[in-house]
């Protein structure tokens, strides 16, 4: 079973601060996705990374896939209150071709 | 363009009762997924359809759960009988279905929140 551990589990920061959160596994993934989920809604895909060492930027969000494709990080620069939500990472690949989700990181950005 | 539609949004039932959830995927999406999300957890795949064929139902508890996707469009997920532990959010997602499921963009619906008393 492929497991993804996300850390920290909860994070509360002030608007304007920077933050980095992590998604780690002992398994190698063919790809890794990050989603954001708001209360009462389904997850929304932010990014997919497929190459070891790959870095993708989405405005103030920077995603990195580890060289060994076992881990990933998400860095947010100058957080805004609209960044509040549950951030899920999901790894995919292997024989079953399905996504395995982590438990998520609950981010709260205070005004 | 309309997103993934799910109904009902909320459902409260007593244990041992049956319940059904309905999903209408994005038009043109061949792959449809049903996920279970418990409080404080990430979604867990229950079943994946490619058109009308269930290609991965290994995580579906078949003694009480069933699903169908007639004509390869809408889908229904049923629980009979429901147990207390089935209280969760049931998410439906769809994707184009032209690539690997774990690399495609999956579009999620808002989910059905089930409470079993």
Report on the architecture of this protein.
- The complex is a heterodimer of chains A (111) and B (117).
- Chain A is built from no helices and 11 strands.
- Chain A is mostly beta strands and 111 residues long.
- In chain A, the strands form 2 sheets. In chain A, strands 2, 4, 5, 9, 10 and 11 form a 6-stranded mixed β-sheet that branches.
- Chain B has strands spanning 5-7, 10-13, 19-24, 31-37, 44-50, 53-56, 65-68, 75-79, 88-95, 107-108, 112-116.
- In chain B, the strands form 2 sheets. In chain B, strands 2, 4, 5, 6, 9, 10 and 11 form a 7-stranded mixed β-sheet that branches. In chain B, strands 1-3-8-7 form a 4-stranded antiparallel β-sheet, with no helix packed on it.
- The mean pLDDT of chain B is 94.
- Chains A and B meet through strand 5 and strand 9 of A and strand 5 and strand 10 of B.
What integer value in Å does the Rg of chain A equal?
A: 13 Å
Give the overall silhouette of chain B.
globular
Q: Can you count the helices of chain B?
A: 0
Indicate the percent of residues in helices of chain B. under 10%
The arrangement of helices and strands of chain A along the chain is EEEEEEEEEEE
- What is the tally of beta strands of chain B? 11
- The N- and C-terminal alpha carbons of chain B lie at a distance of 37 Å
Globally, the shape of chain A reads globular
* Low-pLDDT sequence parts of chain B: none
Q: Report mean pLDDT of chain A, rounded to a whole number.
A: 93
Structural class of chain A: mainly beta
> Main β-sheet of chain B: number of strands, strand sense, barrel status?
7 strands, mixed
- DSSP strand tally of chain A: 11
* Strand fraction of chain A: over 45%
Determine the structural class of chain B based on helices, strands and strand pairing: mainly beta
Low-pLDDT stretches of chain A: none
DSSP helical segment count of chain A = 0
Helical residue percent band of chain A: under 10%
The greatest interface between two protein chains, and residues involved on each side, is:
A-B, 26 and 23 residues
